[in-house]
């Protein structure tokens, strides 16, 4: 069903280029501002009478009998600006990815709730219609959701830094305070991971389906997942395996194609000769896997949207009235399939 949706809504095939292109432009500006911020500190000479270890470039070794050298000091305002700039980068990244997920979910959901038919309810460029709905109605919810995810990830990063400073990352300390700190950090980390998983992708899907705010959509998604845990878990496990095999096949095909291309006469003689094809093949394999991940993310998002739409349809109408026969045969009950194929008695 997901493949049929992508085949009908053809704009989804090239849609990943748009959000990641926007992210590329954003990173250009972000790196430029970051260079200005990090270069705005004051270069101060260290106290040569202090004892510390420093690497001497002339002698090419570490010397620990003096502390001469230079260090960069930032004012509190510049330090706060650097922290805000780093947090803003992560927030903006999460925001653009959330917008991308919401647009894909809106396009797929419009196909599902229109009985999967090429009706006027599904415009030819449904992706752009979904983008219009996002800009008009759901942009605030997506911004709030990405902010919450970024804030939670920042707390997780701080807890992990504290845990490393306490040196409890690999073993449990003997002291009571160390054990308490270790158990607390582990508990908070698990809670943060669970929160991120529960409010991330599924909340954006329900925002696109129902038009609710982030918190209401997250509650609806959590309730649907808990009430249909076996049905959703069965499809997700099989789907994840198939998607991983698809990514692996695409990346390996890229690597094999690069190897055969480099094995030609053009790259084995004269000034184009390559001593070893290992590095170019590995680079092509990595790039192939990255590109495959970007485009397979559309398929993955389509699958999750169809599953949650099916569950929402079943919750609202008792039976999935808008689902296509193939989906009912896979996810629905046998009596639903008979009702759809035989018609009313």
From TrEMBL:
<keyword id="KW-1133">Transmembrane helix</keyword>
<feature type="transmembrane region" description="Helical">
    <location>
        <begin position="95"/>
        <end position="114"/>
    </location>
</feature>
<dbReference type="Pfam" id="PF04515">
    <property type="entry name" value="Choline_transpo"/>
</dbReference>
<feature type="transmembrane region" description="Helical">
    <location>
        <begin position="241"/>
        <end position="262"/>
    </location>
</feature>
<comment type="similarity">
    <text>Belongs to the CTL (choline transporter-like) family.</text>
</comment>
<comment type="function">
    <text>Choline transporter.</text>
</comment>
<feature type="transmembrane region" description="Helical">
    <location>
        <begin position="17"/>
        <end position="38"/>
    </location>
</feature>
<keyword id="KW-0812">Transmembrane</keyword>
<keyword id="KW-0472">Membrane</keyword>
<dbReference type="InterPro" id="IPR007603">
    <property type="entry name" value="Choline_transptr-like"/>
</dbReference>
<dbReference type="GO" id="GO:0022857">
    <property type="term" value="F:transmembrane transporter activity"/>
</dbReference>
<protein>
    <recommendedName>
        <fullName>Choline transporter-like protein</fullName>
    </recommendedName>
</protein>
<dbReference type="GO" id="GO:0005886">
    <property type="term" value="C:plasma membrane"/>
</dbReference>
<feature type="transmembrane region" description="Helical">
    <location>
        <begin position="274"/>
        <end position="299"/>
    </location>
</feature>
<feature type="transmembrane region" description="Helical">
    <location>
        <begin position="134"/>
        <end position="159"/>
    </location>
</feature>
């Amino acid at each position: 069903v997901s493949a049929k949706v992508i085949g009908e809504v053809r704009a989804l095939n090239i849609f990943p280029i748009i959000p990641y292109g926007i992210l590329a432009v954003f990173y250009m500006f972000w790196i430029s501002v970051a260079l200005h911020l990090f270069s705005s500190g004051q270069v101060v000479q260290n106290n040569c009478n202090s004892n510390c270890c420093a690497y001497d470039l002339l002698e090419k070794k570490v010397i620990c009998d003096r502390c001469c050298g230079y260090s960069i000091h930032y004012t509190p305002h510049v330090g706060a600006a650097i922290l805000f700039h780093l947090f803003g980068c992560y927030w903006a990244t999460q925001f653009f990815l959330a917008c991308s997920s919401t647009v894909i979910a809106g396009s797929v959901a419009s196909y599902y709730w229109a009985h999967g038919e090429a009706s006027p309810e599904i415009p030819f460029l449904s992706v752009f219609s979904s983008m219009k709905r996002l800009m008009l109605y759901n942009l605030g919810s997506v911004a709030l959701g990405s902010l919450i995810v970024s804030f939670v990830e920042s707390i997780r990063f701080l807890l992990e830094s504290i845990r490393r400073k306490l040196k409890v990352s690999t073993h449990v300390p003997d002291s009571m305070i160390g054990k308490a700190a270790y158990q607390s950090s582990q508990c908070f980390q698990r809670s943060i991971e669970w929160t991120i998983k529960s409010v991330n992708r599924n909340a954006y899907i329900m925002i696109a389906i129902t038009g609710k705010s982030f918190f209401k959509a997250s509650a609806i998604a959590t309730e649907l997942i808990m009430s249909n845990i076996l049905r959703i878990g069965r499809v997700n496990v099989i789907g994840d395996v198939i998607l991983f095999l698809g990514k692996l096949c695409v990346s390996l095909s890229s690597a094999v194609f690069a190897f055969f291309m480099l094995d030609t006469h053009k790259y084995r003689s004269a000034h184009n000769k390559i001593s070893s094809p290992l590095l170019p093949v590995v680079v092509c394999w990595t790039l192939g896997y990255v590109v495959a991940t970007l485009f397979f993310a559309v398929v993955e998002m389509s699958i999750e949207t169809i599953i949650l739409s099916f569950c929402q349809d079943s919750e609202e109408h008792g039976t999935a009235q808008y689902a296509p026969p193939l989906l009912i045969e896979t996810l629905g009950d046998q009596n639903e399939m008979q009702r759809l194929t035989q018609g009313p008695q």
